[in-house]
């Protein structure tokens, strides 16, 4: 049992290092080239990789969550890149958000955030858990995901830390993000038309 615990600690430390390295690399790239993260530049990158455009778009949308960068520029880039295909952009955006949110939800525990917060802020963790486990917990997470200025990735980490039932978390994220993405995609198409 002690050996499994030691292996678990090594895996956890490796995941934390990888996670921190990804965030640091994304931050350095962003600070060195903030224009590279504009919706237009993301769309240009996707056009340059037209052969596997949908796969690239899904991969970028999925991996984006590990860097804590918002999904909004990718949704807008998809709208610019595929103005005649709003349903496809909407679907791919939601798939990317769903996969990214799921990874963040499960990584929060694998990275040890649950232990970290349980030891340092147990009252806050238990309070958030009580709020998220109520019938209003679903509405709280959905509203958070819908609100454009609230980082959806943060609620994914918290939901993973407080162990919100996955199906509630997933449903709430999809509900909030579906509304927001629909607004971005169809309002963007209306502006482009």
Characteristic key phrases:
193 residues; mainly alpha; 10 helices; disordered N terminus
Secondary structure elements and pairings:
Elements: H1 2-32, H2 39-48, H3 53-63, H4 72-81, H5 86-110, H6 113-120, H7 122-133, H8 135-146, H9 152-161, H10 166-192
Helix pairs in contact: 2-4, 3-5, 4-5, 4-10, 5-9, 5-10, 6-7, 7-8, 8-10
Average pLDDT over all residues: 81
Fraction in helix: over 70%
Rg over CA atoms: 18 Å
Number of helices: 10
Distance between the termini: 63 Å
The helix-and-strand class reads mainly alpha
Classify the beta-strand content into a percent band. under 5%
> What is the count of β-strands?
0
Low-pLDDT windows of residues: 1-5
- Biggest β-sheet, characterized? none
- Shape, principal axes of CA atoms: globular
Give the domain tally.
1
Order of helices and strands: HHHHHHHHHH
Task: Write a short abstract of this structure.
Helix content is 81%, strand content 0%. The chain has 193 residues and is mostly helical.
